[in-house]
Design a protein that fits this description.
InterPro entries: DUF2768 (IPR020076). The chain is an all-alpha fold and 71 residues long. The protein contains three helices and no strands. The protein has one domain.
Length: 71
């Protein structure tokens, strides 16, 4: 089901659109890595938890963008 959805979503994208989606995915993954590094080094308590969850969401969205750009 998920593969069919990705194939349908990516089928309507041109090659240039897939390139931009992949750049967005790469950028989100880089930002997630920087955010989690900052959260582990500089913050404590609930702020660390919130920043970690935001980084996780960014990482998942970046991964989805990467999968869409591949298909």
């Amino acid at each position: 089901m998920l593969l069919q959805l990705q194939t349908y979503a990516a089928a309507s994208l041109s090659a240039m659109d897939k390139m931009w989606v992949s750049f967005i995915g790469i950028g989100l993954m880089i930002l997630a890595a920087l955010l989690i590094t900052y959260a582990r080094i500089k913050t404590k308590g609930w702020v660390k938890l919130v920043l970690t969850l935001v980084a996780l969401i960014m990482l998942i969205y970046g991964m989805i963008c990467g999968f869409v750009s591949i298909v």
